[in-house]
Amino acid sequence: MMDYEELLALLDMEGSTDFVYFEQFAELLESGEDIPLEAILALVQGADNEVLAELTEGYFEDILQFVPDDEVELFTLLQTIGTTLAALAQGEGQSEEGTRTYAEELFKFRNWYTADSRVLSTDREDGVQSEIPLLAALTNYRVRNFVEDEYDYDFSEALDYPLDEYIVSLAALAEDEDPDDDAVTGEEQDFLP
Questions:
Q1: C-alpha distances in angstroms, 93 versus 50, 112, 126, 170, 179?
Q2: How far apart are CA 166 and CA 109, in angstroms?
Q3: Which helix (H) or strand (E) holds 29?
């Protein structure tokens, strides 16, 4: 299992403050290496919260482009995970506990995305089926415009992700709201004809 120093070497960085590039974030999430939670935690503890939020948003925007058009539930699931992780990075990342929560959720997503998720892949020619992780299925689907992909994918099993375990600060999500919006403030209002 890799330690923090080995993770820095994998990401071609000298320290956590160098964690600023999309490619580094993608490598962290997509690497086949066994990266423990404590190494990810050490990495994000030294990184800038706003940069983490931007990297998270950018990564999920990128992978959402390659979700098949008819996979609305998968698109919504990934969008929700990305939004939640970005909110955790931005809002909750101000505290030690918040940083740990972000690292834990990123670690959980990474394990699910690269290994635990299941997509049924069916060879169109001989009908042979196999299960592959979501990352592999989306990667194959992404390159099908450049190389002939002879497989069909059933993403229904990949929808099993424990969203109810997410803890998101409503204050962090509301930071982007305009205070002048006509939002309900909790005060009773009279509406007269």
A1: 9, 22, 49, 14, 23
A2: 11
A3: helix 22-30
